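Give me structure tokens for this 415-residue protein.
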Amino acid sequence: MDASEDVIPHIYYLAAVVALLPLFLKMRSTIRARHESLLRVASLLLVMAFLVLASAAPQSITLINRTTGVTNIAAPWVYSLLTAFSACCLLMLTAWRDGATASAGRVMRWVIAVYSLVIVALWVLFALGDPAVERLRDFDTYYADEPYLREMITLYIVAHTVANTVNFVLLWSWERRVRRVDAWLRTGLLLMGTGYIATLAFNGFKLTAVVGRWSGHDLDWLSTQAAPLAGAIGSILVGAGFLVPHAGQAAYEFWRAALRHRRLLPLCRLLKEHVPAGPSTLVGKPDIHTSLTIREKEIRDSLYTLAPYLDHELHRRARRAALDPDPVLGESLGRRLTPREAEGVAGAVAVSAAIAARAEDPGRGAEWRSPDSLLRDVEAVSGALRRPSIVEAVRRSAAARSESTPAAWNDTPAP
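Here you go.
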């Protein structure tokens, strides 16, 4: 419960905010799925981490002691919170790994029973001891030789060490199983595992300082400076480990949707200008995923409207010209196009020609053919529209190609 105020000011409060951050970010989904045991345990763990860190700061310790009027009562209070946090870590990992199985239920009940007894023992030992001198930063080492208080201090350190050791072993075995399955979950587990290593260092520093007092050595700096820093770092890493699998995946999906939304803009803008799909009935500002769905629907509807004017033979010749350009076209392109780029350019040529054909003869009753096989990759088509000079060069080359091109050409759309 000692603080490293000389090392990092307000480090406990900073770590407390970081520990509670995942709960705020997942508040909506947590409320929706509040009946799920895993979410309840994870939420309780984050709240306990916040309470431990917020209560362990020297200012908070002073406030607790002054409010209750009991000298050093903040000590068993913080130790109890830390013990409850250790139990919550074990409960969370058990529920996360094993789900709602009978064996998991038995393990969780044992954890609750054992750590509840530890908390009761902490308060009993504090009541039997005599902590007459208020200590805000060095309670552990100052009372390391006092009867009952010595046992209380040792008990909370051992209980916390056992929980963190078990958690680290569980995380290590789990990380090996998900190593090639879920990158975000693995990253979260690695962060949590590193956090538990830092927390074990916290326990090691505390215990070393206490044992040093027993043997007549002054190693108080391990308890008052090194331990709080390790504990705060561990709490931040554990909180980040909870956050990464959820927030990381969400950020990745957001980025993918935003990138595709942006890449489809040239094609969407061209079709809206010449073949509008009709106004959207959506009310309010949509999120990026909804915006992407709307954009894809508008492009699909406009292409289906444009379908009777799409020249599949022109598309075939344009693709062939892009894949195997003549010297003039090769000089214009500057390099050979990949099969996907060639498909995109051929699609852009076909769409541009269809728009022009529709403008010249809006009522033409050509045979309707689905544009799906011709424009299977609208993102590549949209990307090609960003380079109109290349699209125009391929169009001219395709128009110059003779209809008597040998049948040896492979007309199957490139992958």
